Structures are given as structure tokens and as C-alpha cells.
Amino acid sequence: MKLSAKTKICLIIGDPVEHSLSPVMHNTGYKALGIEDQFVFLGAKVMVEDINVVVNAMKKMGIHGLTCTIPHKTEVMKFLDKIDETARRIGAVNTVLNKNGKLIGFNTDWLGAVVPLEKITNLSGKKTLVLGAGGAARAVVFGLLKKGADVKIFNRTKEKAIRLAEEFQCQITDLKKLSEIKDFDIIINTTSVGMKPWEKETPIPTEFINDKQIVFDIVYVPHETKLLKEAKKRGAKVIHGVEMLLHQGTAQFEIYTGKKAPEKIMRRTLMSSP
Length: 274
Fold this sequence. Notes:
This protein folds into 2 domains: 8-107 and 244-272, Leucine Dehydrogenase, chain A, domain 1 (Rossmann fold, 3-Layer(aba) Sandwich), CATH 3.40.50.10860; 110-239, NAD(P)-binding Rossmann-like Domain (Rossmann fold, 3-Layer(aba) Sandwich), CATH 3.40.50.720. Helix content is 35%, strand content 19%. It has 9 helices and 12 strands. The protein has helices at residues 22-33, 51-61, 85-90, 109-118, 135-146, 158-168, 226-233, 241-257, 263-272; strands at residues 8-14, 39-45, 65-68, 82-83, 95-99, 102-106, 127-131, 150-154, 171-172, 186-189, 214-217, 237-239.
């Protein structure tokens, strides 16, 4: 790695963030393109109440890119100079570019959800259950609706699900009849259930999952969550969280560098990471 004072810093912030594979994915991409002297990707744990300090430091220090993960995707928007139209409609930002001192917010998470799904199905008209109502859910719901899916939202805090559904003009479900789960074509988990310390939990009961369904869990550590393990046992097609990480990451890579992301190499790195 040929770092210098000219190297542009990109940084992922979150709480937690130690599990993130974004640094290894992006840095591998830089190396593959021979630009590892121009860019470096790091990580930092940041509490949500300190997001304004980080954004201010981004300007003062000339940090080139800021990747936002849980719980910063909505809070960071308050402190940006400009928000891309797609990110504004989603209501969440996962990518911030420092362009000559102006901070511009983007959202690539919706691509992380849609691209893997469209590789195996046409989303138009598909009955889709989205689990969760946070920043990631906003991007997933936006992407699904953009592609013509029929979306219902389930969240343990019903009020948040109602607000999100009203904003995107879709429906909610309280899953009082758990058998309703079997009626969906696609189930997507956008919650943190399945990652530490909830590895032994699933966001919904799994007994009604069946072999006609696609189950997508955006949690990528562990690689195969309990939800995906149970779905596989029942014959469902599963999509691992690394697929969302990869496809939102390649779009983000291109925003930060202006270069085509080496997707195959970045995928290989993610699949071989512990």
C-alpha cells in the first residue's frame, strides 16, 4: 500500500462497526485498479449523538467519502449541503461525497437490494414482506416499489411501520395470523436480528416459510443467519447479506472513485473474509 499525504480517505461510521467488511472490500478494489495510492478506506465507531462532529470534521479535514451504517443513515442528512434526489425520496443516506468542500448525500442501498433479487426473479407484482422500518428498510421499500413489487411492512414497533407505509404508500401487516407468511413471494429482513448478539434469533417464526419463496437477509455477519438456515431447510431460495453489501458497495465505490468497480474481485474478497 503506497499511502501519502495526497491519499484520499474514505471512512465507514457506525455503532457497531467492528464487524464491517466494507474496508476490506473497498481497499481490495483500489488495489485491483492500481489506485491504492489514491484512496484508502477505514472504519470508526461513532455514536449517533456525535454524527454532527464527524460531518464537521469531514469538511475540516477534507475526508473524501463517508459511508454511513446503523444508526446514522437518517441522522446524517441534517448536516449535509445537498442530498441526491433518490436519497431524498428514500429519506436515508448511506454515502456522502465531499466535492470541493460540499457534502453530497446519496443512497446506494436500494441497488444492494434490487440487483440480487432481479438476478433470480422479476419483481413486478411480487408479494413482498419487508421486516423492519429503519434506514435500510426505507431503501429496500423504495427499490421494491420502483420495480413494481407489492410491498407489506412488518415491524415490532407498529407505529414506525405505519409511518413508513404511509410515506411510501404501501401496506403494513401485524402478522397476527402467522400463516400469512406463506402467502409472500419474497421475505426480506432489514433488521439487526440475526447478527450479534441475536445470532440465535429470527425476526419472524420460520415454520410457514416454503419452497416457493425467496428469503433475503441483509445481515452479513454471520454469513448465514438463523433465518437463512431455516429457510434453506424448507426449500426456499436464499440470498445472503453479502450480496447487498457488494452491490451497494460497488455503486458507492464508483461514486467515490469515478471508476468502474471490479465487482468479481470485490465479491471474491467478501466471500473469503472470515
